[in-house]
Here is the input.
Amino acid sequence: MKTKVHHSDTKPWHKHRWPWILMSVPAISVVLGIILIGTALRNPAILVVDNYYAEGRGINQSLAMDHAATDRGLEAMVQLDGQQLTLRLTGSAPNAATDEALRLYIYHATDELRDKDFLLVATAQNGVYELADADLSGSLATLLGSQGAWYLELRGADNDWRLRQRVQTPLTQVTL
Here is the structure.
């Protein structure tokens, strides 16, 4: 009778494929977990609100500002010509556009670190406003010339009205 000889594998364990495949699953999980924790620590959630009541009151106040602009019939045309920004404010109500200065806020749709605000002052021409600081016209031109989604918000000197518009940049002219 012939006996069957069983050949055992004499290769060391690290030369086999299966131990490496089995060890890679937990190793990849650890690496991805570290990446996830690092990302969460660098980018905290900025959309979480603790005080919902105060936030709701703020929303109602913002809506009142929108209605005030509508009641005055306000409309603003922002025009960017190279590095020069000109804003023309018109209104249908008497004395609707008589503010000495306006505040233009530019909010990025997803990154609050890119948000900016600019002070616009009245010129000798009625209803026309220009940047108070001419040095900021370059940064404004860069913002409006870059690719992205932005919110433009124009407010009166007393914060009693606002015009707001979502825009896609680059742009040279927009009506609020």
In short: The two ends are 99 Å apart (CA to CA). Residues 17-42 form the longest helix (26 residues). The chain has a mean pLDDT of 75. The beta strands are 75-81, 84-90, 101-108, 116-122, 128-131, 148-155, 162-169, 173-175.
